[in-house]
Amino acid sequence: MFRLLGVLLTVLFAIATAIVVWPQFFRVEQLFPVAQLVAMRGVLIAGYLALAVLMLLLLLARPLRGFAASILVVALLGALAHGTVLYLRGVGPGALPEKSDGSIRVMTWNTNGEAVSAAEIAATIVEQDADVVALPETADSVGREIALMLRESGHRMWVHHVDFYPDVVNGPQAWQTTILISPDLGDYSVIDSSLDRTSNTGQVPSAVVMPVDGTGPTIVAVHAVAPRQSAMDQWRADLQWVADQCPSGDVILAGDFNATIDHTASLGTRGGDMGACFDVAARTGTGQAGTWPTTLPSLLGAPIDRILATANWHPEGSLVLGDDGGSDHRALVVQLSPAE
């Protein structure tokens, strides 16, 4: 009886391991709790290795030896499979090459409201020589303060933003998303459907910003809702909306997706990772470098802050910044150049 129970548990454990290693194959990557588990593959590896150590100890008990050996094998295979994914996508922190003619740098940083000062954000923008900066959870007033500091540093940028509740005084900055764009890219404006919420993410705002003269990429500052158990339907709707912003053409997506490349696997079209856009970090060696939370090492975190672009752009490099900004998110910077 015990042997049959052990076999059953081993089979169930093997099935569960296969699901969290490759949830896209089973079409469960957006279901609770698989979505939460696969987001942090580094933590899963640590869990598998801890279980493997426990099973090694149980090998000393003769009645449990067969069961422990089978669980040990599955745990080691699970750790190896997740480790392979991390290796292939890259765990960073990465690096950026020198800028070339036509290349641009795009940065995203969920600043967690007032957790990061305007001065620190401005200093990081100047240090990284960013041309486009998506700032979820950053108020328009903070964005304008940043722009003033940038102007004094000789790094001019225009400020755009979306506020879901502009009539609420001193509301949480999670209700706002700010985006800064270098005037070297031309004049931009936020489209009306982003401002009036007729087409936007549901609970926290994203911003679709388009060039006034039609020349240049459409830029989307993304903020999808977190996949809490009570918000899974809205989370899935937000991800679909984001993917729909990149059907083709010249598009750059940047922000807090609250989703990894695994979660959006079914949303790719035309060979893209999300719509027709490809994930820059995954193609430049930092695709599994965790950007949240900063309380965990990057190797154990979730790579949910992302930058994607259409085939108009060639990925040159990516860089996940350190933990000293005060936010619970790390900033991500990528360099793109026009595709030939």
- How far apart the termini lie comes to 66 Å
Number of strands: 13
| Number of structurally distinct domains | 2
Helix fraction, binned, reads 25-40%
Largest sheet descriptor: 7 strands, mixed
Radius of gyration, in Å, reads 22 Å
Per-chain topology:
Layout: H1 2-21, H2 23-26, H3 34-38, H4 41-58, H5 65-89, E1 94-95, E2 104-108, H6 118-128, E3 132-136, H7 140-152, E4 158-163, E5 176-181, E6 188-190, H8 192-195, E7 207-211, E8 218-223, H9 232-244, E9 251-256, E10 278-279, E11 305-309, E12 313-320, E13 332-338
Parallel strand pairs: 2-3, 8-9
Antiparallel strand pairs: 1-12, 2-13, 3-5, 4-5, 6-7, 7-8, 9-11, 10-11, 12-13
Walk me through what this model shows.
With 340 residues, the chain is an alpha+beta fold. It has two domains: 2-89, no CATH class; 94-338, Deoxyribonuclease I, Chain A (4-Layer Sandwich). The chain is 33% helix and 19% strand. It contains nine helices and 13 strands. The chain has helices spanning 2-21, 23-26, 34-38, 41-58, 65-89, 118-128, 140-152, 192-195, 232-244, and strands at 94-95, 104-108, 132-136, 158-163, 176-181, 188-190, 207-211, 218-223, 251-256, 278-279, 305-309, 313-320, 332-338. It has a seven-stranded mixed sheet, with helices on one face. Helix 1 (2-21) runs parallel beside helix 5 and helix 6 packs across helix 7. The longest helix has 25 residues, at 65-89. The chain starts with a helix and ends with a strand. The relative contact order is 0.15. The mean pLDDT is 95.
